[in-house]
């Protein structure tokens, strides 16, 4: 049975609130009772340009923002929705309405009571208009009804079971209506001084140094959180980030903020440990995006040649140090258990790949010049860590072998994102892209024609437009039958692998490094992109 079927079956009945601590009890007794107090220092890299998580999808924002903002649901290790701001819900038999009963007695950090009006405003006026993934995840949302302050009803044009996978504070956070109403949402001061319902309250942001979050003394979950505060430190230098962990000055570094090259040494440090858990709902791929408006990159032969020229095993070994797997196409292998991933696509890691690449470039009318160069491109270097510079350096070498001269361009995160997603002033770009909890999340925002959205980060910036793919992705989002849905996504993967609007490099495996004194930091499949409400410091 597929994940979609599991969620659909679950949603046919009302889901009632679970007692706090049940998830922890189910996984076995604690080694020690949680201690109250203390400061957790986590490394976030790079420093976010904004904390407006509802409008920007960069992966360095949620580790901070999800301490402040909450969603209607959270998720257990099997990725099933669990109560959070919604204490129960019921999906109608036709799948077109989802009725949420909300938690009583919840207040925002500014003292305003949380009601269904906040849910309605968040979904319809903020997320649906400004959130990069909402046009995909909320494509079927027609309205949010509020029959009373503690009931919110999502009304859908068609069934959309994947919505139940995207109701966390990471994906669809609930914001305070009174903070935003009547203001310019994108210029609202709370963008960098967030106000939510979460276990920690925003206190201060010292640019270039840290963000401080303090315990929410009025948090609605009794007894939580345990920590007094969380400090998110920003350390540009990779060696200094590792040194901070090794010296015990920082306690947690998620999303591979510690370079892969340092992990073997970290394993030998008695105060540290590593985990790859906490990324089950955030599968990601390292990719090479190609600007489809470039004269050379418009040609499929050229795009395929670039895909053949790259040895993914080199990237896995020398950049990722074995953490991950070579990508085969536009879906991560993590969707294999749901029956949605296939490797029955055009294979680019083949023994004669360089011969094929050179032949394709010749066919494309890009002969070698006297110096062996066919043409030149710029590559925008991912700003999220030194491993991405290392990958860019390899890509430059690999493409030089087939006659493509690459110049690397490194800039700060804000400049990089503006150049690529607003100005479209790029040839090649090397982001790592989250694929979320359902193919709708990743495939639709990257490949639907409608997702060519100037100024929106991490959407379709390759200008890929294929009516057949648009149709099948639309059908896949609405198809309730697991086998039919799998068949649609198999065909989509085959077409995309053939067209190669981007080059899929590695199915990324993120790693978290943590101090052994820090307990209960990773309590679900969203890991560091959910609140550290149960984390505590041992002596």
TrEMBL record:
It holds the Pfam family SBP_bac_5. Belongs to the bacterial solute-binding protein 5 family. It comes from Methylobacterium phyllosphaerae. This is Glutathione-binding protein GsiB. GO terms for molecular function: peptide transmembrane transporter activity. GO terms for biological process: peptide transport. The keyword Metal-binding does not apply. PROSITE patterns: TAT (PS51318). Residues 1-31 form the signal peptide. The keyword Electron transport does not apply. It is found in: Periplasm. Keywords: Signal. Residues 81-428 form the Solute-binding protein family domain. GO terms for cellular component: ATP-binding cassette (ABC) transporter complex; outer membrane-bounded periplasmic space. InterPro entries: Peptide/Ni-bd, SBP_5, SBP_5_dom, TAT_signal.
